[in-house]
Amino acid sequence: MVPLSWYMVLGAVVFAIGVFGFLSRKNIIIVFMSIELMLNAVNINLISMSHYIQDLRGQILAFFVIAVAAAEAAIGLAIVIALFRNKATAHVDEVKEMQG
Amino acid sequence: MNFQLPDLAPMMPELVMTALALVVLLADLLIRKKEVIALISMAGVAFVALTLFYAPGGATFGTMYISDGYSTFFKVIFFINVILSVLISIKYIAVERVNYGEYYSLILFSTIGMMIMASAGDLIVLYLGLELMALSTYVLAGFIRHDIKSNEAALKYFLLGAFSSAFLLYGISLVYGLTGTTDIKAIASFISEKGLADNLSLLLSVAFLVVAFGFKIAAAPFHMWAPDVYEGAPTSITAFMSVGPKAAGFAVLGRVFMVAFASAKVDWAVILIPVAILTMAVGNIVALSQTNIKRMLAYSSIAHAGYALLGIITANNDGLASMMNYLMIYAFMNIGAFAVIIMLRSEGFKGDNISDYEGLAKTHPLAAMLMLIFMFSLTGIPPTAGFIGKLYIFMSAINAGYTWLVVIAVIFSAISAYFYLRIVMYMYMKEPKTDVSLTTSFSNGVALAVTTVAVLVIGVLPASLLELAKAAISGF
Amino acid sequence: MIQQAFFAYFAFVITILSLLIVTRKNPVHSVMWMLLLFFHIAGMYLFLNAEFMAAIQVIVYAGGILVLFLFAVLLVNIREELQIGKYIGAAPTSFTFAVGLFVVIVMSLRSFVAAPPGIYSIELIKQETHTKALGKLLYTEFLYPFEVASLILLVAIIGAIVLAKRRLKS
Predict the structure, then answer these.
(1) Given an 8 Å threshold on Cβ–Cβ distance, is A46 in contact with B176?
(2) pLDDT at B462
(3) 3-state DSSP helix/strand/coil percent for chain C, to nearest 5?
(4) What dotted CATH number matches C1-86?
(5) How far apart are CA B206 and CA B209, in angstroms?
């Protein structure tokens, strides 16, 4: 039997990689994919916990996370397209109309 | 297996509000004059506010939905916020050439999300309410599709919002693994039963929740999105989201920390105190150098989150009541200030630079006087409501033994006088440079009248509102 | 033993694929690696007796979300993309932060104690089938969040149309 902590370390690895991608990449779409990585890390956590503590609540939450991720992807890419109409760039560091 | 539908009576406000949002969405197909849709939404929200007082209290769907005084008080703030925001939007979105009916239904959907958050008794419901609120607000922030600033605001708000909700989920997953439940009350009893209060993983999950809620209330160091988003978003939406999502963030912050992590109290106070100090410092100091008024009010809104956090840190009913009182007052004075700002926007003139206010008292004395009242209130000068709000927050913090924290808050509050009164100085002491013409409308006038009266009346007769907040919290 | 071996395989591949996603220069490659990643995560869910979750992982993530990503990638000028650097200036700080975060999480996980087991034992789920057990819960105990999720999807539809439709009537 694989201990629960292994899964949680795997979740932490994927989460940290997602955080790194989010904070370091230029391309908006890859930044966005990094967020999906983080959400998947959470789902790994939730589903493995749910299995080990024999309770389905975690999987229910993971189910909702996937549903919301789909909604988020739709909105996020619509925002990227709206931005693209006005300025043909997909790089976070070029989106700086406002500086304070 | 038999399934019985739970008692729907306590959640009547949410149900009616959802029906209203759907009706508004459909009405957009049939009605050409968008002002009518705005009217339908405002009348509908007023009706929902009525159902709020007739719906029985109590929990339903297990304890996933809780209707108590605490949630009712916050819902009143959300209703005030949505009605005032719609009032100031009607003319403005026509000026910005985005007069679409979806605007109003998205505002209503966002408010439903806030209501769900305020009533959430379960972390799953809390998460979904938060996403409903946030997704609608992302779209609203980018509503002026032909304006690149608005696109940029939506993009930044979206990316950082999604990032913070990933942190929220990671925190929830840790809590779930530790306690085996997501029910807020059950978490509390499990933690105190098993003596998990000083568990490191629990502390980490608390820290992650602070990060996530800190993003929503724009507390430093999670505030980076606020200035850009506030500046780029449509002004009416800036007003809407500087009050609504912030109040909703405080509502869940209060409930999760005071109930679920009640026994781990010392731990989260240790995390929140530096956050509050940093928030007040960043908000007040960076605001000094701003030249754009929306941006300045963004930093001001960060600073106000810092003051309101003091109410949570005191961690007693008194502190929470003064925090709720403060947020209600903040709703009036902040939307009032935005109602003045929105008047300066006219066809072909942005009007969001602080220098545009030079000499306003000479050309438009009434607008300048109203702005003066709101600036005084935001600074916290008597006899305005802002003074009362700050006074109660500071008093409850002193009573809880945080005198040194209050001293810091008062110092920052004094610094804030500089940038608020600078606007007043510009309006009254300088000569008009540019020819500013105001875009006035009946609805905006109503919003201004309501907010001005509220700011002055609460400032003179503060007791009843605070009593209301105290009564609301008593059954917490 | 066989379980450990499978876990080791999945964990290794998932880590490598995640790293590939955030380090590839060409966003199309990233999307493709992500497709592979989602299949591996779904495979791991099967090992955790969560076959319904594995199915929707493939259907929603790989079938829905990734297609949206591919559409968005079409907007990017790949040739120009390959010319310029892929990281922003603060990348070393981000790397330090991510590593620090990982260390903090792992350190605090050492004090992690799993909650006592609940009623959904492996036998019970086997007997009732996973999809049925989950579905029953979803439509009874979790009906309220389920309805809220439907509102979220509605807002996503409205929002995407409002933002991305070429012409709106006013």
Answers:
(1) yes
(2) 87
(3) 75, 0, 25
(4) 1.20.120.1200
(5) 5
Cβ-nearest to A5 among C52, C64, C112: C112
Task: State the total domains in chain A.
Answer: 1
Name the band, by pLDDT with cuts 50, 70 and 90, for residue B475: low
Q: Whose CA is closest to A48, among B293, B83, C50?
A: C50
What residue ranges do the domains of chain C occupy? 1-86
Contact B219, B211 (CB under 8 A): no
In a domain, A76, yes or no: yes
Neighbours of C36 (CB within 10 A): 16
Chains that touch B (3 or more CB pairs under 8 A): A, C
Q: List the 129-168 stretch of B: residues with Cβ below 8 A of C.
A: 129, 131-132, 135-136, 138-139, 142-143, 145, 154
Tell me the per-residue pLDDT of C39-94, one tens digit each, with 9 for 90 and over: 999 999 998 989 999 999 999 998 889 988 988 888 777 777 778 878 888 889 99
CB B232, CB B159: distance < 8 Å: no
Query: Which residues 6+ apart lie within 8 Å of C29 measured at CB?
Result: C20
Distance CA B305, CA B284 (A): 11
The stretch A66-77 carries a mean pLDDT of 94
Cα A67 from Cα A61, distance rounded (Å): 10
For residue A3, being part of any structural domain is answered with: no
Confidence of residue B260 (pLDDT cuts 50, 70, 90): confident
- Whether ipTM > 0.90 holds is yes
For residue B136, give the nearest of C118, C136, C155 by CB distance.
C155
Contact B201 C112 (CB under 8 A): yes
Rounded mean pLDDT of B74-98?
94
Token representation of residue B317: 């009913």
- Average pLDDT rounded to a whole number, residues B418-443: 88
One-letter identity of residue B263: S
The CA distance from B206 to B198, in Å, is 11
pTM: 0.95
Name the residue facing B148 among A41, A75, A86 (closest C-beta). Answer: A86
Is the residue at A47 inside a domain? Answer: yes
